[in-house]
Amino acid sequence: MIFALLAFAVVILLCFFGVRIGIATLVVGFFGVALQRGFDAGFTLVGQQVVEHAMNYNLSVIPLFILMGSFIHKSEVSADLYQAAYAGLSKIRGGLAHSTVIACAGFSAVCGSSLATAATMTKVSMPPMRKYNYSSSLATGTIAAGGTLGIMIPPSVPLVIYGLVTQQDIGALFMAGIIPGIILVLSFLLVVAIWTWLDPEAAPSDDLKIDVNSTKKSVKAVIPILLLFVLVLGGIYGRIFTPTEASGIGAVGAALIAISRGFMIETSQWREVLVEATTTSAGLFLVIFGASIFMQYITLSGMPFELMYWIDDMNFSPMGLVLMIIFISLLMGMVFEAIGILLLIVPLFLPALEMAGINLIWFGIIIVLVIELALITPPIGINVFVVSSMAKDIPIIKVFQGVLPFVLAMLSVLGLLLIWPNVVLFLPSLSPV
Amino acid sequence: MEKQVNIGGSSISKVLISILEVITAILLFSMMILTFIDVIGRYLFNAPVYGAAEIIQILLIGVIFSAMPIVSKTNSHIAVELFSPSISKKIPKTHSLVVNLFSVCGLLVISGEIFRVAVDAYEIGKTTIVLEWPLIIILVPTTIFCLIAAAFQASWLLRGEK
Lengths: 433, 162
Fold this sequence. Notes:
The complex is a heterodimer of chains A (about 425) and B (about 160). Chain A is mainly α. Chain A has one domain (about 1-430). Helix content of chain A is about 80%, strand content about 0%. Chain A has 21 helices and no strands. In chain A, about 60% of the residues are buried. Chain B is mainly α and about 160 residues long. Chain B has one domain (about 10-160). Helices cover about 75% and strands about 0% of the residues of chain B. In chain B, helix 1 (about 10-45) runs antiparallel to helix 2 (about 50-75) and helix 4 (about 90-125) packs antiparallel against helix 5. Chain B is elongated and about 65 Å long. The chains are: A mainly alpha (about 425), B mainly alpha (about 160). At the A-B interface, helix 1, helix 2, helix 3, helix 4 and helix 13 of A face helix 1, helix 2, helix 3 and helix 4 of B.
């Protein structure tokens, strides 16, 4: 186990230095296996793992869902989502911030990228919030936190990866994410409501004129996106489509939405969107290759099983084990980005989790919520950096102050899911199969 | 954090990237259309595309590796950027050398090992299961894409930038 821990330490050190996580895990994993079983075994493992993952049918959902998101991103629906949400929420204090939460949730669910959501929504919702003198903390905090919502709300690439690592049904995971996703959205709305109630100056009244015609147009524009969302999720849930088939349909549907909105007419636009999706996927796959090689070494070293026995000896309760993993993941969230936590921390504790009889669908939702937290908490808090890099006049500390109440809301939701697993497990339990 | 820095590069590398962009775009587009047609064929006409799942697998490895050189060229792999910017400021040359050297070695090992899988498959006449396509015709282009990626990464090494 000492060598395995050392290997983890080297990976973390290399990542801090700036070596790509996929490369760092690949090299350390390779040397680990090579030292234990000889260089030939190390080399063979690399080829075998890379080819196996690059030709894994189930992993083809990754580029297709990313492509779906790129089409949605390209079709500039964010402004329509925002306007449609505002039409319903304009009478409430802080209506613009409330609408930001709803639009972020809707956009990030179909777009799939929390970074793209944070960047897009900064462009769409910062100008009106500035115009009506919203506090900069409230405005930026709402956007940075709202951007994370899509990781929980399916279809979600992190949930797909979790499902593949733990061999859980992706349809069930997607279903499990829906209620927690909605609760998160509601808790964010509550944060905005409480904030603007305690500090009315944070959101002075916004008497934004609602133009009936353009609102109708926005609502109409949102409907196809909702339909696509229902088709993709309903198809997976009803076992009509496999996740791969659903992602193909989702991508074609998103392309049609983009075309109907006047985008994706020229071949250059197609090339741009397709290349964006393939390069994002290639970056992710490199992490998958590296992490799988590294985890092969960790498994070979016996660490996951030693951990399992150690946890058994320590008489950890199942909840104690989950809390410990959450704590470690939060720490690691400062070092690795989302996929790193899923690919390095989850497999490490998988035998222990299975032995403790923990429901892995529920645990998947818990760990995804932890990843969402990592996206907005220091020191990395990548969403915070994205928002602050786009709203340059607002100091980053203001954005961190702004996300703090949302962090508290997420921690409360985390507590809720820990106490009542049924919030997560209710929908999957209704599944037809 | 992703970092998109574009470097000028020679005209040959620009043409190469252009070609790779077209290839990777066509592959992903085909994957999308094939999945779609397969589903429609299966549910509406009871006629799924023969070997669709296998073609999707082949397209997947093609999509991923044809995009790898583009990722290397723009140097936009996923990396943690907590201390590395300050390290990079203090010792820019050493930092760039170490980071890029790791990437080059990693990509070279991957290319070498995919090639070995390809040769092994050729020697025992291994094919894909349904369509019976020889694995080597899939894995050799994959190796070449990965080598190009390693070469682009190495060009960063020579530039001494990150």
